[in-house]
Amino acid sequence: MRLKKILEQDPEIIVTDAARNGEDALRKIAALQPHVVTMDVEMPGVDGLEALKRIMEDYPVPVVMLSALTAQGTVETLRALELGAVDFIQKPGFMDARALEKFEKELPEKIKTAATSTVHGKRPLPKPAGSIPVLGKKSSPLKMVAIGCSTGGPAALQQIIPVLPKNFPVAVIVVQHIPKGFTRPMAERLDKISHITVVEAERGTVIKAGQVYIAPAGSVFTVKKTGEEIRAELDALTTRSAFKPSVDDMISSVADVYGEQALGVILTGMGNDGLKGLSALKRKGGRVVAEAESSCVVFGMPKAAIEAGIVDQVVDLSIMGETIVKNVLR
């Protein structure tokens, strides 16, 4: 089995067993109690999503999903992240040597990162759209909320964006580390379950209050003021970051454009992307909120900001949406 061979090449990983299908996987997980599980969405019998649901209910363990390079595979992968998977990796095409090489390099690293993560399982969605009244007060000293996240981010965003009221008086920009092809379906999913409109940003998109903009994967995302308008820019600068988009690039540009009228929010994720941008925002008089370790899948990005002394509030994900609203209306 190729997957098993790839993982066994890493001396820090021990492969305890391989399963033939979903039912076999559930039996072996119960018996072997592995630190991490890798699972394909497409499996005979009990499929990956059903197996994942039962894993989270009966044997909570970090799960890294294998995703197909198709539209349906994208939707199913996002569903897996909702159900509690901590991360995913796209399966390479059979004839794509470069993609295979990338897969062989990234998979072991994702497995080792997953082993250090905290499993929270499937969280219930916040109150459905329409159940929270619109804001009585429509003005705010702020004009922008800038959110950055990585591992665990898609599920975290589903706990935050639906809480924002319909007439939210500021714009929201989100950078989520995720491969190309996933940001538009993620935006569409969030839009369906939220009061506020959620879209994938495009080059030249005018940033308006009462909208959530998801930065498109694969591009350097920044904002720029032109005349009276503030627009999204893609690949307008050369980034030093390993990520496209990066939280640092986005929030640094937000700091330049909005200054003290912006709120920076840093959520679950590995590494320290966002630290430079949030530091710049703090110097301009902006406020910073970080997710607490108690609810993070990976307490990396928030931890870096907290340890740097630039965070004004540290809150659990369960009250992050409410905290953002309170900051906007303070």
TrEMBL record:
Name of the gene this protein is made from: cheB
UniProtKB keywords: Chemotaxis, Cytoplasm, Hydrolase, Phosphoprotein
SUPFAM superfamilies attached to this UniProt entry: CheY-like (SSF52172), Methylesterase CheB, C-terminal domain (SSF52738)
PROSITE patterns: CHEB, RESPONSE_REGULATORY
Broad enzyme group: hydrolase
Modified residues (4-aspartylphosphate): 40
Protein name per the record: Protein-glutamate methylesterase/protein-glutamine glutaminase
One annotated GO biological process: chemotaxis
GO cellular component term of the entry, any: cytoplasm
Subcellular location(s) of the protein: Cytoplasm
Pfam families reported in the protein's UniProt record: CheB_methylest (PF01339), Response_reg (PF00072)
Location (main, coarse): cytoplasm
Domains as described in the record: Contains a C-terminal catalytic domain, and an N-terminal region which modulates catalytic activity.
Function: May play the central regulatory role in sporulation. It may be an element of the effector pathway responsible for the activation of sporulation genes in response to nutritional stress. Spo0A may act in concert with spo0H (a sigma factor) to control the expression of some genes that are critical to the sporulation process.
Record's comment on post-translational modification: Phosphorylated by CheA. Phosphorylation of the N-terminal regulatory domain activates the methylesterase activity.
Residue ranges of every copy of the CheB-type methylesterase domain listed in the record: 138-330
Organism: Formimonas warabiya
UniProt record similarity statement: Belongs to the CheB family.
InterPro entries named in the record: CheB-like, CheB_C, CheY-like_superfamily, Sig_transdc_resp-reg_Me-estase, Sig_transdc_resp-reg_receiver
PANTHER family on file: PROTEIN-GLUTAMATE METHYLESTERASE/PROTEIN-GLUTAMINE GLUTAMINASE, PROTEIN-GLUTAMATE METHYLESTERASE_PROTEIN-GLUTAMINE GLUTAMINASE
GO terms of molecular function: phosphorelay response regulator activity; protein-glutamate methylesterase activity; protein-glutamine glutaminase activity
Catalysis performed (reactions): [protein]-L-glutamate 5-O-methyl ester + H2O = L-glutamyl-[protein] + methanol + H(+); L-glutaminyl-[protein] + H2O = L-glutamyl-[protein] + NH4(+)
Record EC number: 3.1.1.61, 3.5.1.44
Residues the record marks as active site: 150, 177, 273
